[in-house]
Every structure is written in C-alpha cells, then in structure tokens.
Amino acid sequence: MKFSTKVIHAGQEPDPTTGAVMTPIYQTSTYAQTGLGEHKGYEYARTGNPTRTALEACVAALENGQYGLAFASGLAAEHAILNLLRAGDHLIACDDLYGGTYRLFERVMGRYGVSASYVTASNLVEYEKAIRPNTRLIWLETPTNPLLNLVDIQAVARLAHQHGLLLVVDNTFASPYFQNPLDLGADIVLHSTTKYINGHSDVIGGVVVTSNQEVYEELKFHQNAVGAVPGPFDVWLTLRGIKTLAVRMKQHEENAISVARFLDEHARVERVYYPGLPSHPDHALAKRQMRGFGGMVSFQLKGTRADVDNVLRRLKVFTLAESLGGVESLVCHPATMTHGSIPQEIREARGVVDTLLRLSVGIEDIHDLLFDLEQALA
Ligand SMILES: *Cc1c(COP(=O)(O)O)cnc(C)c1O
C-alpha cells in the first residue's frame, strides 16, 4: 500500500468482534481468560490493548518497519530506548537537540552512569572522533530543532555499523510522510506523536519503530516492565489524527515554503532557516534524503529581545506556545521555551540566540498567515 492508504488502513482492519469500521476504544484494564493460560492474546492492558496494537501496527507500517511500540509521551519512548544501555555505556548525539532529550541524557541517564558526547550535527568526522570503546549508540535528529540542520542518515548509519553501534533517529520533525530513516539504515526510529502524527494538539504520546527483533524484544520488555504506556483514548485520538497525516503534511509544506520565501525577502529578518530554500546549506541533502521539506521554519529577527517580544505580542493567527505539528500555526521562542533547560553559553554557541523564533506553520489559509506576519513585523 502507498502512504496515503496506509495511514487509513494499516493496522486498522474492521473490529473482529463487531465489524466496527473504526478501531474501538478498548477501555479495559484486564481481559477474561477462558482457562489457565487460555486467552485471546490480551491479559492485562499495560502489556497489551487492541486500540494500542492498531496504532503500533500503523506507525510501524508508515516507517516501513517490522515492529511498533507506543508510549505515554515522546520522552517515555526515548527513555525506553535508553534502557538498552547499561551503567558505563556512552552515546553520541548531535548537538542541535530537543531540549527535553538533552535533559533526559544529562540529568536522568547521567545519574545511572550513562554518558553522552555532543557533536556538530552535520560533521561526520566529529562523530567518528567521538567513538569510544564503551560507545553503544548514536542519536540523531534531522532536521534538527530549532535550526533545521540536516544530518546524512545513510553516512552516519554506515559509520555506526562499522563500529557495531546502533543508530537512533528522532523523526518527529520530518514525520514519516517526508522521511523514513529505517530505509536509510537507521536501526531505531522514534516519534513524539504529540506533534505531526496526532496533529491536533490534543494528545501527548510517543512511538518507537524498529525491524531489529532483538531490539524490539528488549524494548517490549521495558514497555511492560516500566509501564509508561498510553491510555486507550489517547491512542484512539492519535489513530483518528493519523488518518489525515498525508493531506495535512502536504498543506503544512506548501504553507511553510510560502512563509520561508516571504521571511527571506523581509527587511526585518536577519536569516531564515528552512531546508526547502535553495540557499540552505543542506538543501541538496534534503532533496536526496527527504520527500519534502516539512512545515517548520525558523528565523532570526534583526534587533533585540525587546523587538522579539513586540513581534510576539502582535501576532494574532500564530499562537505563542510550546510544541509543533498541529493544524494551527504556532510560534515559539526556543531560547526561553523549548531550549530553556540548556545552559545559556552552550545554547548560544549552538546558534539558539535570543532573537531566534521558530514557526510551526499550520494548515490555515496562507494569505492569513502571511498577513499576520507582515503586520507583526511592521
Ligand atoms: C516534543 C519532542 C520530543 C518529546 O516528546 P513529548 O511527546 O513532548 O514527550 C522529542 N523530540 C522532539 C524532536 C520533539 O519535538
């Protein structure tokens, strides 16, 4: 099946008990057993729930993977992956990273003796140099957050496998519509389904997909043993959202291209970060590794933090809020919001300055979005 068919049908056959076309919300914690060890595949809902199974199968299909696992949040999904490591292990991550991921590495995993090194996202030589005898995995985001740099997944996968390391890709920003890291050699792909996959800003969730059976079995063990699973209603909302993923992503991208071009020509804008602009340093890589450029646009305003505050107060259609990937347009100030937990000097050295704004371009009418930006910048 092609992508637009998979979002609607993969894992979502009519319900076997009633024929219900939509996957029902199995709001139950436990399942009747007919005899000792005799049941229909479900015993207890932390271990498994048919609504969750449908989402897990659907996202696995969208990422061209064998196995999917759903979690209560994107960070819970990340934590499950990090449970593959042991005390004393080391990981390498790109430095332009979601703030919560950095916090999880440093302030949670660090306490359990897992250490992390950070390398310039697009510099392959730095990845190789950072490998130590105790390195177990490489962790990437591409496009990165918030500067939308790209990492060559195929090249890093080759390097990882030469050294016996696992490659993990956080595919939240691209969505499976625009990029499939497993096809490029990654071992594990993860999403915060809170973002594009659910797409309606009304659920927190995460998923992990892999085709490596050994990795899957360990992750599945942790999903049940730790228990950070999503409830059936959240999973059902996500399944409802996922059905329009393809049409939403097309519109997000069309609007984002227009917004990026508009900002690029605006006198008050210092610099625009969007992989779809030919001037973007990774434009050629984006064309090769992605099927489109996505809906996120970042830009640096000319002026001071006070000017940024003025623009934010004047925007009407773009809402100042954390998160991304919903149907509505959002604007975020990474330095104080998503990346507020990163120490200032580290943050600024990575380009996340006080005058940087990140847009999650929604699917509203493009004229309203451009007019809103125009009046706020004026
Ligand atoms: C939001 C986000 C996460 C964390 O997901 P939650 O669902 O908020 O826990 C991880 N990675 C990226 C790139 C994100 O945008």
TrEMBL record:
Lineage: Bacteria, Bacillati, Chloroflexota, Ktedonobacteria, Ktedonobacterales
Example of a GO cellular component annotation carried by this entry: cytoplasm
UniProt modified residues of type N6-(pyridoxal phosphate)lysine: 195
Keyword Transmembrane annotated: no
Name recorded for this polypeptide: Cystathionine gamma-lyase
GO terms, biological process: cysteine biosynthetic process via cystathionine; transsulfuration
Cofactor(s) recorded in Swiss-Prot or TrEMBL: pyridoxal 5'-phosphate
Keyword Lyase annotated: yes
GO molecular function: cystathionine gamma-lyase activity; cystathionine gamma-synthase activity; pyridoxal phosphate binding
Keywords: Lyase, Pyridoxal phosphate
Alphabetized Pfam families for the sequence: Cys_Met_Meta_PP (PF01053)
Family under the similarity heading: Belongs to the trans-sulfuration enzymes family.
Matching InterPro entries: Cys/Met-Metab_PyrdxlP-dep_enz (IPR000277), Cys_met_metab_PP (IPR054542), PyrdxlP-dep_Trfase (IPR015424), PyrdxlP-dep_Trfase_major (IPR015421), PyrdxlP-dep_Trfase_small (IPR015422)
UniProt superkingdom: Bacteria
